[in-house]
Design a protein that fits this description.
The chain is α/β, with parallel strands linked by helices. It contains 18 helices and twelve strands. Helix 16 crosses helix 17. The structure holds NADPH dihydro-nicotinamide-adenine-dinucleotide phosphate (NDP).
């Protein structure tokens, strides 16, 4: 049996209750086969892949907090410090009832290669809790965030591990966590990114993942002789990534037809009204059922369905495994040209394969949504030099990073004989840098 297959089998055996982690490992290891086969004896001797698939550290803790009626609740808190080969651990904190150790491990594993691809000195990690921020009062959110940080603060720091937001953890949650870190550690330092602008945050961080997704998509289309202007776009989700993907897509001259949340989805044949979307989601924190009040000609549908609309480009920006094989078949039947992942692992392995086999340009999340973490690294740089850069400066750097990243994955895909396969390109390019750093640092 090949070394890759041996390690995949071991991961499946040792993490049997963690399907998302197994899926992420399988995707990466399958596509780095050419590199591993060329170095099989040395990698096997050094247990290189075993060290790649096992996190350096997994931390689990109890998070007790008191609700507005005086009742005590206990949630699980996690931080997985996956790899510090190329820099301090870096990756977001997800607050969602579906969070468990397998979800955090899959996200941390992906983060290692994504962070490597940015070209910036950041390792990979991820954390979060099964706490559900939905429907909680501000005071309850603060109580949870303070309790979560009371424990997490023992393991993080500006030079060791720098968390950020993710699903359910936006500026409000990051603010409460930063306040508690500062109180307990007595340090005002760049320990979290996605901070507010008045206390060390970076301009463009809020927009970065969505903008970066469009910069990369635009570049991928351009290299394939296609102009994004005038194209129709499907977006899923209506959170941070989705909103700023919609904004940049409109700016680039495309028309966005859909957005969704966990209850349903909106189809607006005239193009999504960005101001209405921001008002509903960012200001009023309401459900998408409200959208029709702003745009009477739009349609609201309960459940899943974004991928059934005919369009040129699909941008899944909600959550893992939201685009399945049946969705991919409909997209292809409707003539989709490109799929780029704003979310982490939103496309199942079967759906990815089907899209690629049918000639759809496919940009995997670890490349396409890397603009968020890249800009977080720029926030770290600004915090270290005690300066704040202008919106234009950060945005220009973000665009450069995404274009260089595309160049890199495109070149690597060609070099290994898989031209146009950006999954292979991203996984090998991300992997090679991490391996180089690991080899230089010895068995640690
Ligand atoms: P938000 O919490 O801001 O928004 C998430 C959106 O996805 C919401 O519209 C939410 O709907 C929807 N959603 C979440 N879970 C589900 C689910 N199980 N089923 C259906 N819809 C769901 O998160 P972000 O926009 O920050 O993150 C979205 C994705 O992008 C995630 O995969 C995240 O890991 C990834 N990502 C985020 C980055 C960032 O900078 N924020 C960086 C890189 C990747 P509802 O409101 O109803 O829950």
């Amino acid at each position: 049996m090949s070394y890759v297959d041996e390690v995949i089998e071991a991961v499946e055996r040792e993490n049997a209750n963690e399907p998302e982690f197994i899926q992420a490992v399988r995707e990466v290891l399958d596509s780095i086969r050419p590199v591993v086969e060329a170095n099989e004896a040395a990698y096997r001797r050094d247990a290189l892949l075993e060290r790649i698939v096992n996190p350096e550290r997994e931390i689990k803790f109890r998070v007790p907090w008191i609700d507005d009626n005086g009742n005590v609740h206990v949630n699980n808190g996690y931080r997985v410090q996956f790899s510090s080969a190329i820099g301090p651990y870096k990756g977001g904190l997800r607050l969602h009832p579906s969070v468990n150790i397998g979800i955090i491990k899959f996200l941390g594993f992906e983060q290692v290669f994504k962070n490597s691809l940015t070209g910036l000195p950041i390792g990979g990690g991820k954390g979060g809790s099964d706490f559900d921020p939905k429907g909680k009062s501000d005071r309850e959110i603060m109580a949870f965030c303070q309790s979560f940080m009371s424990e997490l603060c023992k393991y993080i720091g500006a030079y060791t591990d720098v968390p950020a937001g993710d699903i359910g953890a936006g500026p409000r949650e990051i603010g409460y966590m930063f306040g508690q870190y500062k109180k307990l550690r007595g340090l005002f330092e760049g320990v979290l990114t996605g901070k507010g602008l008045s206390y060390g945050g970076s301009l463009t961080r809020r927009e970065a993942t969505g903008y970066g997704l469009l910069y990369l998509t635009d570049e991928m289309l351009r290299r394939n002789g296609i102009d994004i202007k005038g194209k129709t776009v499907l977006v899923s989700g209506s959170g941070n990534v989705a909103i700023y993907a919609v904004e940049k897509a409109i700016e680039l001259g495309a028309k966005v037809l859909t957005v969704s949340d966990s209850n349903g989805w909106v189809y607006d044949p005239e193009g999504i009204d960005l101001n209405a979307l921001k008002e509903i989601k960012e200001v009023k924190r309401q459900r998408l059922t409200e959208y029709k009040k702003y745009r009477p000609d739009s349609e609201y549908h309960e459940g899943k369905g974004v991928w059934s609309v005919k369009a040129d480009i699909a941008l899944p920006c909600a959550t893992q495994n939201e685009l399945e094989l049946d969705d991919a078949k409909i997209l292809v039947a409707n003539g989709v040209i490109a799929v780029a992942e704003g979310a982490n692992m939103p496309t199942t392995l079967e759906a990815t394969k089907y899209l690629q086999e049918n000639g759809v340009l496919f940009a995997p999340g670890k490349a396409a949504n890397a603009g968020g973490v890249a800009t977080s690294a720029l926030e770290m740089s600004q915090n270290s030099e005690r300066l704040s850069w202008s919106f234009e400066k950060v945005d220009t750097k973000l665009k450069d990073i995404m274009v260089n990243l595309f160049d890199n994955i495109d070149d690597v895909a060609k070099k290994y004989g898989f031209p146009g396969n950006y999954v292979v390109g991203a996984n090998i390019a991300g992997f090679e840098k991490v391996v180089d750093a690991m080899n230089a640092q010895g068995i640690v």
